[in-house]
Design brief:
With 240 residues, the chain is an alpha+beta fold. It has three helices and 15 strands. It has a seven-stranded mixed sheet with strand order 2-1-4-8-13-12-15, with no helix packed on it. A four-stranded mixed sheet has the order 3-10-9-6, covered by helices on one side. The longest helix has 15 residues. It starts with a helix and ends with a helix. This is Cupredoxin. Keywords: Membrane, Signal, Transmembrane, Transmembrane helix. InterPro entries: Cupredoxin, Ser-rich/MCO-related.
Length: 240
């Protein structure tokens, strides 16, 4: 009886999760579109890299353009202007803690200082506008440390959703290709990328080389986004 209830609850939670699509660098703009989202636990955010060479790098509200040493990082995603498919990096939200991100590209100009930042669950006291203003004012420097989160990045879908809904581990990597490469972080983060033509170094042109993400621990492959909650519930039910 317990196994049926647990599995049903886990399935319901997975089915109710919203999905957001965020365009990274669309139309040659140094911007995330939309620039912020309000997400609930279980929701997924799909970052679609549309052109040039950008990243989704976690920072802090206090230091918008400084990489958090305990945060996640997509690495640089080089996308050719003629590309017909784009890399997708997916983040699953586990709580409502505010999260702050920026593009770490500095060539030919620092993208963060140009306002290319993104926020998840900004608050009335710490707004997106304040975060972006601080970035434009020169909120850069050395890497900073913040408390680990419990969000996760899961395998990206084979196709983006048609409409959107309303941390960290200790090490990670992502890879280019048509499938999904997943890394599970010790602190709850996992990272994935799909449909990647190439990943690039920190340059405007970008060399076609795999970019290391410093926030994962274990790598494995998967073709779909499966809820860890559902897996654990199913295993628990089977054992009972």
């Amino acid at each position: 009886m317990f196994s049926i209830v647990a599995f049903t609850l886990a399935s319901a939670l997975a089915a109710s999760a919203a999905e957001f699509t965020v365009a990274v660098g669309a139309n040659n703009m140094l911007a995330f579109d939309p620039p912020s989202v309000m997400a609930q636990p279980g929701d997924m955010i799909h970052f679609e890299f549309q052109n040039k060479n950008h990243s989704v790098t976690q920072s802090t509200f206090a230091s918008p353009c400084s990489k958090s040493t305990s945060g996640v990082d997509s690495g640089f995603m080089l996308v050719d202007a003629a590309a017909t498919s784009h890399p997708i990096w997916t983040l699953q939200i586990s709580d409502t803690t505010p999260l702050w991100f920026y593009c770490a590209q500095t060539n030919p100009v620092p993208h963060c200082a140009a306002g290319m930042v993104f926020a998840v669950n900004p608050t009335a006291d710490k707004t997106f506008d304040q975060f972006q203003t601080a970035a434009k004012a020169g909120g850069s420097g050395n890497s900073t440390t913040e408390a680990p989160g419990s969000n996760s990045v899961i395998p990206a879908p084979t196709a983006l959703p048609t409409a959107g809904g309303a941390g960290a581990g200790t090490s990670a990597s992502v890879s280019a290709g048509t499938g999904a490469s997943v890394s599970v972080g010790a602190g709850g983060f996992t990272t994935s990328v799909s449909n990647a033509a190439a990943t690039g170094t920190n340059s405007a042109a970008g060399a076609a080389t795999t970019s290391a993400n410093p926030n994962s621990a274990v790598g494995l492959s998967s073709a779909g986004a499966v809820s860890l909650v559902s897996i654990f519930a199913a295993v628990a039910g089977f054992m009972l």
